Each structure stands twice: as C-alpha cells, then as structure tokens.
Structures
1.
Amino acid sequence: MTIAVGIIGVGVMGADHARTLVNHVPGARLRAVTDADGARARQVAAETGAETVAPDPMAVINDRSVDAVLIASPDQTHRDLTLTCLAAGKPVLCEKPLAPTARECLEVLAAEVKGGRRLVQVGYMRHFDPAYMEMKAKLLSGELGRAVMLHNFHRNVSAPTWFDAKMAISNSAVHEIDISRWLLDTELTSVQVFKPKIAGMAENGAPVFLVFETAKGQIVNVEMFNNAAYGYDVRGELVCEKGTISLRSPIHSEVNTGLASTTFYPADWRPRFADAYRLQMQAWIKSLSDGKPVGASAWDGYVTSAVGEAGHQSLAEGRSVRIALVPKPGLYD
Ligand code: ISE
C-alpha cells in the first residue's frame, strides 16, 4: 500500500520534508504541495516530482486522493489546519509546535480525543535521532543506575532581529523540553529561567538558561543560545548514579593539517538532524500502514507548549514557576 501525502507549506522545512519523502520513503508518494507563495510551491513540485500543486491548504486536506497531511506552514496556522485534518479523519504530521499556546493545543487534544483515535504526530524529530535513541537505550538497560541530572546545550549560529528570549523558549528550547520528558520518561514539575546580564549584549538571540525539576526528583538544565556565532551545536549529558552518557553529533570527516585537527559544525539543524528527520518520516509512514502511532503525540505537543508557557511566566516574574497540566486523557496511555 502506498500512502499519498500532501504537504502544506514548502518553506525551508516543508521543502526538506518533501525531498526526504520522495528520496527516502519507499511506501509513500508526494501527491500534492501547497504554499502561500505559489511560485515556491511550483518550484518544489518541479524539483521533487510532486503530482499536483494545490491552490491552498483546504484543497490539500479535502483532496480525496490525499491519505495523509504534513503541516509545515507557519506556527500560528498549525491549530486550524490540524483541526481540519482531524475533522476530515486524516492522519497528520504537524511540525513543532503543535500550536503556539497551550490553550490551542488543548483544542486539538479535545478534537482528537472526541474522534477516539490517534491521528496526530508532532514533528519533535529528536525522538528518532540515533544519538538520543542510544542514550535512552543505555539508560533503560539499567547498567548506569538511575538518571539524576540532564544537561542540555542548544546553540544556533545567529538569530533574526525579532528573536527574543520568549522565542528562545517557545521556538527552540521546546526541543529540549520535549526530549528531556521523553528521555527521562517523566514530567517536568517546575521551571526557573535565568538570563545573563551582560552590558551591551544584543537582545536578539541572547542566551537563556532554564532549570527544571522533574516528578522523579531529577534536575534538568537547558542552555539556549540562538546567537552563539560559531556553529549549530546541540549537546547533552545524562548523569546517572554509576556513570554518564554524552551525546555525540554525527561527524563525517576530520581534517588534520598544520599541527591541528579540525571537525566542522553545520550552519543549521538540518544536517545535524538529517537522520532524525528521515527516520521520523519513515516511521510516520509505516505507522499509517500498521496502525501503531509513533513519535510525539498531541499530548506531548500540548505538554511541551504548556511547559514553554510556564517558562515565559518565570522569565517575566523572575521566580520558579510550578508547571500545571490538565489530566492526561486515556487515549495517550
Ligand atoms: C529552530 O527554531 C528549530 O525549529 C529547529 O528545529 C531547531 O533545531 C533550531 O535550533 C531552532 O532554533
């Protein structure tokens, strides 16, 4: 069975997903693409061999020949489009975040629960990153004892001028919020956000430092620095009772010359997480054939946004904030 996919939004991420789908996922075909910029949609269709260019998102979702929808349009469109997919009974892989606010995520959650079956996967692709998967497998083996602390670093080369501390949390550090819950298999219960106060330092992309407590009593921290200048760099170290597990980024070559050895950083997240994006897409398509949901659920999408909002509150009020969640619906157990 071949799954016909429609992609809504073919900017940087959507176009990348289109290439991944046509080049690396044998059980799927790219049935339709659409974008607010029609010329861009036509260009991506020509490059990837997409069968049609649809005039708008509704045309993709309502196209009876489209089996599943991938949403990669701007964040503020995610709620409405996901709700429309649910109303049409179509499975959807929605780029992160599920929606910018926890309230909107809850609307999606309510609609999915009402329908009684899991149709939504959220594109928190780190669940499929081989380095994080190895970290989790090692933890689950029990060899190192229980997890005690998790250090996360997330650095980008540069941030747009409008990228403030709130964006650093809700657009970028949400990846660490998501992956920390997944790795430790628990909820984050409190958050406190700190900001270095360096005279004259640019406000856009300035670092934020988040400290969480978990329901299992662990401490998690996240250094989020969107303007770190030197490269795209994601690191992590899990400290357990009897040892630690550190993340290694994929390195394909090393240059040795002039008494020095050099490896290179990617400029953004796409090369670093290329395997994760590919494995996520393959797993999503397989899950549609075998009916077993994988990856981050709408519940995970809601929790991540709710934790991000608590982070915003901590930032505004300069204190630790308790994280309050609605009860988890049985559909997500
Ligand atoms: C960015 O906003 C993303 O969404 C990427 O997935 C992430 O890896 C990147 O560092 C963020 O800033």
Note: The mean pLDDT is 97.
2.
Amino acid sequence: MIRKYTFGNPMETDAVVHKIEKETGEVPFMGVGADQLAFTYKMDDNTRIYGLGENVRGINKRGWRYISNCSDDPNHREEKNSLYAAHNFIIIEGKERFGLFFDYPGMLTFDLGYTSSNDVSIIPAEDGLDLYIIEGESIKDIVKQFRRMIGRSYIAPKWAFGYGQSRWSYMDEDEIREVVKEHRDAGIPLDSVYMDIDYMERYKDFTINENAFPEFPKFVEELKEQNIHLVPIIDAGVKIEEGYDVYEEGVEKGYFCKEEDGTDFVAAVWPGKVHFPDMLNPDARKWFGQKYKLLLDQGIEGFWNDMNEPAIFYSEKHLDEVFEQLEDFKGKNIDLDLYYKFNSLVGGISNNPDDYKRFYHKFHGETVRHDKVHNLFGYNMTRAAGEAFEEMEPDKRILMFSRSSYVGMHRYGGIWTGDNLSWWSHLLLNIRMMPSLNMVGILYTGADIGGFGADTTEDLMMRWLEFGIFTPLFRNHSAMGTRCQEVYRFENIDAFKNIIGIRYGLLPYIYSEYMKAALKDEMYFRPLAFDYPEDDFAARVEDQLLIGDGLMTAPVYEQNAKGRYVYLPEKLKMVKMKSLTERSVELLDQGHHYVDIDLDETVIFIRPNHVIPMSSGGQSVAEVDFGSLELLGYVEDKAVYELYDDDGYGKDYENSDHYTTITVSQDGTVTAKGIIERRYTLSI
Ligand code: GLC
C-alpha cells in the first residue's frame, strides 16, 4: 500500500509515473516538524535502513549522514555525504517496516542515526515535497511497489552485456584498432570500446576530431564487422565558439540556462567556457536529444552522458571575483588565518555552491533557480537522449548510461558509478552499492572496473573482474595519467581471458535475470537480508550478494587474501571456476565457512533447486549461442528455470516467445517448454 502526502507546493519531477491520490490525514510512522519541515523517526537498536541508491558506506545505511546533492567529486571516501546522484528512497526495517520516498529535487539531508544513534531525521533545504510511504509484507514487496510506481527500468541492447574497454582517452583510430587487436589476438572477449572526450574536436559535443578519425562512419563499420561497438561520451556543457552550430543554435533559440539578468550563464568545463542546455525545459531537451542523431547516423549505437551534475570547473563571474580578491593577498604575510582563507578561495573555485545559485531554468513554464532543482539536471540530460531515441529509433535499443541521476532516470538509461579509485575499498563499495541502486530501478549499472583514478595492480584488477562479471555494465575504465589497465598488459593474460570468458558463459543467466528483473520490477542484486528475512545473521552480511534467483556471490576484496569467510543462509552448492570448463564443486552446509579462493578463481554458490544456464562462451555477445546450453544445477527435488532470450535489439519485451521454461527433475531429466527449440545438456 502506498500513501502520498504533500507538503507545500512541490515541483513536478516526473519521477512517479503511476500517480497516487494524496492523503490528507496524519502521516503514519514519522514525526513531522512544525516550524521547519523535517521528518523524524525513532529506531530501536535492531532497526536497519536500506536504500539511498548511489552512496557511500554500507548496505545498511544506518549511522551516517547522507545529503542528496548531485556532486562531481572523485574522492569517494567514507567521510563524504554525497556522490553523483539523488536517490531519496529508503526502507526502514525494525519494529516497523515501511518505505519512504521523498520526491524533492533540491538538497535533502538524511541523518540516519548520525547525530543521535536511534534518531532518523530527514530535512529538505526548503518546503515543498511529496512524501510516499509504502507498506508491504516484505522488503522485496516494498521495493516492487515503489518500482511499479516509478515505471519500468531501462533495458540495454544485448551487446552491452559484453565486456567493454575504456580509457580516458584513446586518441585516434589506430589506438582503438590496437586495443581491439590485442584482445582478439589473446582470445579475450570484447564487445565495446569507449571513446572519451578526445574523440571530439576540442571537446565540442556531437563533433568528431577528423584528424584522429578521418572517416568515422567507415571506422565504426570496420569495428562492427569485428562485433565491436564504439561508445562515445557526451558532456553536459556546450562550448562557446562562434561558428559551432550547436552553440549558435542554442543561443538563437534561447535554450541555454540563464543568469538572473536573462543572459546565458557562462561556466567552464573541458572546452573552457560553456553554456548548459536547459535540460529542464522540454523544448531545449528535445533539441539537445535530437543532436544524438549526428552520431547515430554514423553508425553509433550507444552513449555515456557525463559531467551532468552539472560539473562546473569555474563560472566566469566567480572567477573574476576570485581574481579580484586575490589582489588583497599580494605583498601580505600569509599567516595561518590568511593561508586558510587563501586556500578556500582558490580551492573552492570548482563546483562552488554559490555557482549553482547563479543560473536559472525554464521549468513547467516558470523561471526556477538551479539550486532548487539541482538534482534533476543529469536525469533530464539522459531523458533528452532517451526520449529522442524513442522517436528516432522506436524499434531499436540504444545503449545509454549517465553519471548523474535522480529517481525516474532509470527509465531512460543506466548509470556508471563515477570516478572511483584503484582501491580495494572501492571494490567493496562497488559490491555494496549495487543492491541499493537496484532498489531505485537502476539495473543497468557497474563501476569502473580496476578503478578510474590511481594506479591499479594486477591482483586488484583480477579480483574486481571476478565481481564485475556479474554487473550488467561490465567496463574497464581508467583515467588519463594512471597505469594502463587493459587486461592484456598484465602478466597472467590467460587468467584474465578465462575470467572474462566466464561472464560470456554465464550470459544466458545474467541476461535472463536482468530482463526478468526489469520486466517484473524486481532486483537483480539483493542483500541476503532481503531473501532470508528470518535469518538474523543474513541481515548482518554486507559483502555477499544474491544475483537473480539462483546465485549467490561472495567476492574477495582484500589484497593478498587467499580466500574468505562466507556465510551460507542455507545449504548451497559451491562452484569454483578457473575457466568455463575447469571447475570444482562442493556442497556446503548452512553456516560459516572459510573458503579458499585462488587469485584467478571465480566462485559462485547455487541455491537449492535452481539451475544456472550456461553457454560455451564466445569472443563477443553475438557469438554466444543461447540455443545450446549447459545447466549448472543443484537439484534436490525439481528445478524450474525461466530462460529469457530475444534478438537483443527489439523492444517487444513482453512477447511470450522470449521465454522458455526449463524443468529439471530429480533424476536429471530435462524438459523445455517454449516456442523456440533448444538443445540442452545437463552437468553436475
Ligand atoms: C569524468 C568522468 C570520467 C571521464 C573523464 C573525462 O571524470 O567521470 O569517466 O573519463 O571525465 O571525460
């Protein structure tokens, strides 16, 4: 049951698609502050809190203060309060169980037992929000009701479930050819290569640097013949430059964000000075979305949207002010006080909170200052693309994922989790973030595998991939200036080939589970607590996840570890894999185990009466044969598996032709019912 309460005059964010009548009575569960709008709740000692999507810290969010304020901050350290997204959905599980969604586009603080360990208080920067309270028979049920209300999750093309290689930046055609060749020569599967900002002509959106890519459409085609998709980045800021059509059109039509005096707001990002398209204005959004056609027409089938918090290196006006104030420091003895002032003046230039108050949107016909709707910007940039794709390519899926997001964006694209670092703790953060992202409908997601900033190591890369093979977005990405981390650069190339190969082997399972989660508003990644609600210990586990219906993963995320402790909420079958074919199997009882896991080993745990359909792999998704499957099973009585397969591009998702029901009986007999004939072999 969902109840909606309205406070003040909220702005319509379009997060919710299935509208709910608002209630007028008292808000249940929560205290509501009288003077300043604030929502409070008293926890008991065992209360847990789940949610908040892309965020720092654990799966159970209790014990910290989180602030929804989409931020371009590459230091995802524990003391941070905000990352790139605003996902204002939590579930409180304790003496009472209920979900809360705060549909509010400005800054919102969640104090979840930080100021006082048993107190929750949630405070918006200003009045005007819709609060949804969701009750359900289980955590999963609450998530499902919420997800139904906010609409179906984005579905990526099937090729985008393959392995992607990225780096900031591959500078020209030859460098990309080399990356592809190295993978193919070593037999490492690969489906995509990402193009970072240097493919553009001086960082101008929707342009191609013709010196580096002289015959771009031909190059796109050449790679497609090898089953490789090129995925270019699109940035939020449009370069200010006479003669650049996107800039000139935007100025002429009045589609850029404005200053208070009506002039176009000038910020700076990669190209230097830019204007921001007013993504909140439907006309501007439509115009910006249509621009993707310039690349679609050249054979491109996927994009990633970046810097859309939006990131601001500096604003023209603020920089002028800083230069002026710096004059005061000249010739002075810079002592302790002055040194701090100096530092904060110079260090506070980028993403300065005051800059977010300097520009305005045309939103639902009104002029609205940016900070009041800040968290909607990235969402609406991706919506611009998603709506345009729907118009331009109604029958074809286009890959799209974004850095910044708000609830509702999950209908138009996925996200990657931004600029992490090559730290073991960020591998753990990746593991913990996945289920909370699924709670808000973001299913197509993954981190920069191996870490974006800082130098990676071979062992970190390997362990990260062993988890990454389960994330729908499966991409190795790193920053300019860091150690190169294409997997063929390391010593044990065969181990990398095998680990990535396991992903392609598991693809029939990963794809089926993804599609079912998207189509039924369910979660692909879940904490143990969600499936084993009666198990007190399962509720404490923060480093193991359930993936789809039949699998549990317990990744290794520590340097030099040769294994780890694993908690089994029931008897499970452990399968250790060094490659698709080199496997060992052991049945483990419910309880705690120490499991040895070699550096080059991937471990999965199969739940009772489940089978995992596996292919024999391939060098690209196109080569994976969903028609000939091996079933990796743990069948005590009977296992029934719902396999989903389609052409990977079309949008007739609901067509029952896509499903095959596979039944495995106790004696190992396999029957399959579906429209499409398939061959099966059963092993284990
Ligand atoms: C941002 C993105 C990163 C990208 C870089 C250059 O930092 O998060 O992924 O490589 O910009 O475009």
Note: The first strand starts at residue 2 and ends at 7.
